[in-house]
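Write out the bound-state structure for zinc ion.
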Amino acid sequence: MKFIVDNNVGRVVGPLRALGYDTLFINPVEDGLMVEIARQKGRTILTKDTGIFKRRLISSGEVPALYLVGDDWRQQLAQVVRELGLNSEPSFTRCMACNTPLDEATREQAEPHVPPYVFRTQESFLHCPGCGRYYWKGTHWHRIREGLERILDSGG
Ligand SMILES: [Zn+2]
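---
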């Protein structure tokens, strides 16, 4: 399942990528273009704009869209996971910042880009070929995982 996320619910973008889902976010994006991208690329629209649901492609069901309830992004994320039956365990296969699939990086590649303490204590690193960020599997990801678990537990 792939997503395109409307500007009004952008806080769910990073967490969905952490869960491993291909999540496109263009800011700003015009409604018509967003619907067209969703149609062409088989993406589900996430939005809290009721106007989009009046469009023929959406009301006919040709392009799937989910209306996110409320203003709290944590509850919105929990809603997406629950209603679309998503995997709720982070996979960390995709850059949270730019959506590019991550590559394994060697320690030598990572060294100039991560804090010295992190380099000394972490074994494995991932690199985003899209934006150049480095990720590591230690405390960084534990924090994200625990945060997501809390949100998903309390959001239902
Ligand atoms: Zn990136």
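---
Residues 139-154 form the longest helix (16 residues).
Strands lie at 2-5, 23-25, 43-47, 65-67, 103-105, 125-127, 134-136.
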